[in-house]
Amino acid sequence: MDTAREKWVYANGEKIWVGKYRNSKNMLHWHDECELIFVERGKMTVFTSGKNYDMSQGNAMFFDSRSLHQMTSVDESTLLLVMVFDRSIINEFAVDITLASPFIECGEAVSDAYRIILDELKNKQSMYNIVTSGTIANLMVKLFRSLPTAHKKPVDGIDDKFANLLCEIESNAEYYTLDDAAKFMNMNASYLSRMFSEKTGVHLIYYINCMRIQKAIKLIKTGNYSMTEISARCGFGTIRNFNDIFKKYTGYAPSALPKNYVFHATIDHPNFSKHDPHGFELVESSS
């Protein structure tokens, strides 16, 4: 889970995927599907809707379709339940509404639904797809009836183009600049910088560098390139600049990167550590 846009593919006509992660962390991203998360153990820090949220055991969070979000475990023992589902499941009663706040303080109902859906998707008994979709629909009805809701704004041209900008940066990070982004968005560079920070929690140049670092790490792990070649391929200009930025963002020199290192871009929050060598683990899933 390290791209600006995640694309989910369901098997057998299913519209839901569920899984449990240990030490979950990911890059800032979005997807067309909705997502529910529940902290089974430990603590999480989440950025979405331009805000930071601290989550602990028993809390849940709802990310509606195309919502930018990023989440990181505070410690490696944290367990997170995740449900990703096609929004068509709830459009019949919630096509134009969403939760006023994504944060759900008492999220045990999310945990209960997770276990029912995981069992159904694993065993695939007769009409299991109907049961899983119905479980999600019933859960969301409970949430919409018990928590404040708000009008769901249609995706406008700016938001749609901003989502595409993230994909554009990811694909072309090695040479992408602030001016390139401003031209893509048809905006003044200063205005775009402010808007980008408000929407993502990070500065645009920081985000570009994160994409470059991510590409550099993939090349380092292949063992097929010298550090000078990697520096040039990822757009750092000079090997000195590459070494300085790489260590600043990861805590390691490129030549000393641990084999199991997993990079995750962080927002400006005291609970986030850029120098965490422990990767996340998918403990269980429906696929």
Task: Describe this structure as you would to a colleague.
It is a single chain. With 287 residues, the chain is α+β, with helices and mostly antiparallel strands. It is 39% helix and 20% strand. The protein has nine helices and eleven strands. The chain has helices at 91-94, 108-123, 128-146, 157-172, 178-185, 189-200, 204-222, 227-233, 239-250; strands at residues 16-22, 34-41, 43-48, 51-56, 60-63, 69-73, 79-85, 97-99, 103-104, 149-151, 281-285. The strands form three sheets. A six-stranded antiparallel sheet has the order 9-5-2-7-1-11, covered by helices on one side. The protein has a three-stranded antiparallel sheet with strand order 4-3-6, with no helix packed on it. A two-stranded antiparallel sheet has the order 8-10. A hairpin with a 2-residue loop joins β3 (43-48) and β4 (51-56). α2 packs antiparallel against α3 (128-146) and α8 crosses α9 (239-250). The longest helix has 19 residues, at 128-146. It is globular, with a radius of gyration of 20 Å. The chain starts with 15 loop residues before the first strand and ends with a strand.
